[in-house]
Design goal:
Blueprint: E1 6-9, H1 14-22, H2 31-55, E2 61-73, E3 76-80, E4 89-95, E5 106-115, H3 117-125, E6 130-133, E7 139-143, H4 152-163, H5 165-190, H6 195-210, H7 219-235, E8 243-244, H8 276-299, H9 317-323, H10 327-339, E9 342-343, E10 348-350, E11 356-358, H11 360-370, H12 376-386, H13 400-409
Parallel strand pairs: 2-5, 5-6, 8-9
Antiparallel strand pairs: 1-4, 2-3, 3-4, 6-7, 10-11
Helix pairs in contact: 2-11, 5-6, 5-7, 5-10, 6-7, 8-9, 8-10, 8-11, 8-13
């Protein structure tokens, strides 16, 4: 449950400056940007309260804008939200140690602000991860868990499995097969009936059957298979319409009127979104990455030792591996959210390079929509089983990593 905010009027120019940076004003001044900021802020509160009442789970605290701040005052964590428009009231929270209503995690979306060093220690003691995303949907930092109690035997078995060509390829094929199964489910649930949908499902079912047999090809060929399936999978979405209003006063690109394809112009990564749904997917995948990072570190696995993606010093191969079978669940959440809304041009801005950027309050709403990803623990448990790891029968030290492994394998 989110703590009830205390409001304080601000008298600075921070929100004015952030509005100018986003270029979302018109002849009326503050109008469209401020109106949509208030709209998405109201929508942000509704689902969080509904989920908390239904699930009785700790909810994330999501911050955005300019002037965010976290500090410790007399043992309590004081949190200030940033400014996203002008005029605006300041949201503030005071969180006390041990409170059952503490957030499950604190998420910082773009913007600016400050975090004091004693905040990091406080969050670690309360087991609250701190996650930061940039405006493109990249995970900048995920702080709050560690693997200091990792089982050395687990790490040894992980490395041995990754270095064994036969076992490594078998695990990689399993990851792709699980992704295709999840993709088929998302298509059946979310995509409207069409020839593209039926073609995608048929192609994916054929590859699932093919991966039911031992994979004799290379990992490069396996990634190629996955890429071809992804192409027909996203093609089944492209004609789904999006609802808009206010486009007579402020036009939008024609490609924004439907979900479109997942991809950018040649030579550019998907991180550089040129479409609203692409931008929302980037935030959704960032939420997924942060939660996979946290849970993987909690179990005690090495984030850089993977099976499907190439292991390089500049990226966590295991995190990318584990994200693959989970991406379709994020696709379903984002697609369901996007098709249930009526957007306005003020919800997005277009950069000079054509990249699409979400209104910060809309970004908060998208991140809140994802929530806890419940399919992460079963995937981790299945991976532990495939690398041949079982927690010790006794409880030698009761580390967080050991307890996490024990919990996963009891699912």
């Amino acid at each position: 449950m989110r703590n009830r905010p205390a409001h304080q009027q601000h008298g600075t120019s921070a929100a004015r400056s952030c509005e100018v940076l986003r270029g979302a004003t018109d002849e009326t001044g503050e109008g469209p940007w401020a109106e949509r900021s208030a709209f998405w802020r109201e929508q942000f509160d509704k689902p969080a309260n509904k989920r908390a009442a239904k699930q009785r789970e700790r909810q994330p605290l999501i911050l955005s804008g300019h002037g965010m701040g976290l500090r410790i005052n007399h043992g309590a964590l004081e949190v200030r939200n940033g400014f996203t428009h002008y005029p605006q009231t300041r949201e503030q929270w005071r969180l006390f140690p041990g409170d059952p209503r503490l957030p499950s995690r604190i998420v910082l979306l773009d913007g600016s602000g400050a975090v004091t060093l004693d905040v990091l220690a406080w969050l670690a003691e309360q087991n609250i991860p701190l996650i930061q995303f940039d405006w493109r949907g990249n995970v900048v930092a995920a702080i709050g868990t560690n693997s200091l109690g990792a089982d050395p035997l687990l790490l040894q078995r992980q490395v041995m499995a990754a270095e064994n060509p036969k076992r490594s390829v078998a695990i990689a094929a399993w990851l792709v097969r699980e992704k295709l199964r999840s993709s088929r489910l998302t298509l059946e649930r979310m995509a409207p009936a069409s020839a593209a949908r039926e073609a995608a499902i048929a192609r994916i079912e054929g590859e699932i059957a093919r991966l039911g047999q031992p994979w004799a090809g290379s990992k490069t060929a396996l990634l190629g298979l996955e890429g071809k399936c992804a192409e027909v999978y996203f093609n089944a979405w492209r004609a789904i319409p999006l609802a808009w209003k206010g486009t007579d006063r402020r036009p939008i690109p024609d490609t924004w009127r439907a979900v479109g394809i997942r991809g950018t112009s040649k030579g550019r990564r998907n991180r550089f979104a040129r479409h609203p749904v692409q931008a929302m997917l980037n935030y959704g995948y960032a939420v997924l990455e942060s939660q996979v990072r946290i849970e993987t570190a909690r179990v005690g696995l090495d984030l850089a030792t993977g099976f499907l993606h190439e292991m390089r010093s500049d990226r966590p191969a295991l995190i990318l591996d584990l994200m693959e079978p989970l991406r379709p669940a994020i696709d379903a959440s984002v697609l369901g959210f996007a098709t249930a809304q009526t957007f306005t041009p003020a919800d997005f801005t277009i950069g000079r390079d054509g990249t699409c950027r979400l209104h910060p309050q809309l970004a908060r709403r998208v991140v809140a929509e994802i929530g806890p990803i419940e399919v992460i623990p079963p995937i981790l448990a299945a991976l532990l089983d495939r690398i041949g790891h079982k927690p010790p029968p006794a409880i030698p030290h009761r580390s967080k990593a050991w307890l996490a492994q024990k919990g996963l394998l009891s699912l």
